[in-house]
Amino acid sequence: MSVSVKMPQLGESVTEGTITRWLKSVGDHVNADEPLVEISTDKVDTEIPSPVTGILLSLAAQEDDVVEVGAELALIGEESEVGAPVETPAPAAPPVTPPAT
């Protein structure tokens, strides 16, 4: 099961941050507490660590993007999830009307 990496609250008055640099690429193995991304705010520059050990499945934001506190930054999952299609619900079929007799 994948885990979402969220933009943390980095200070009482900080509401957003800018992604300065990704330290890992999609497909890379990451360990828990290993630096994943560098974030810059008006008050602090810091590295955000991975919350879990796994494979970096996707990035929800790119370098130089401004992200709100609580926004998703990336997804980390198991190796079996690499390349797995994202499940989307099938569209509803239109109702079938039987022909008149």
Trace the largest sheet across and list its strands.
1-8-6-3
CATH homologous superfamily (4th level) name: RNA polymerase II/Efflux pump adaptor protein, barrel-sandwich hybrid domain
| Mean pLDDT value | 86
Q: Gyration radius, to the nearest Å?
A: 19 Å
Name the helicity range.
under 10%
Distance between the termini: 52 Å
Low-pLDDT stretches = 85-90
Count of helical regions: 0
Number of strands: 8
Question: How big a fraction of the residues is strand?
Answer: 35-45%
CATH topology grouping: OB fold (Dihydrolipoamide Acetyltransferase, E2P)
Q: Tally the structural domains.
A: 1
CATH architecture: Beta Barrel
The top level CATH class name: Mainly Beta
Q: Quickly give the structural class.
A: mainly beta
Largest β sheet strand count, sense and barrel closure: 4 strands, antiparallel
The secondary-structure element order is EEEEEEEE
Bulk shape: extended
